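Following up on my earlier thread - several people asked me to post the actual chain instead of describing it. Fair enough. Here it is, all 78 residues.
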Amino acid sequence: MPCWRCTACWATRWNDVASTKSADLVESSISSPSRRKLILHNSYHIITLDNEKELVADETIAFFNQHLPSEDALLNRA
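Reply from S.P.:
Thanks for posting it. Predicted structure:
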């Protein structure tokens, strides 16, 4: 896959539609220097609505906060 600046992949161990092998494939196929894979253990297919939805939201926010430029950096770039 082309180089993306950062990549996050969330998957669940108990998904009857998509295996965690899909997350493994994404993780091993990307050349992004910043990657995060999270395997959930108490959710099923729609993780944003399931038992660990708060964890999904927290991890997503933390990932983007870590990798997106700050507002000051964006303002100084212009």
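Helices lie at 20-29, 53-67, 71-77. That should answer part of your original question.
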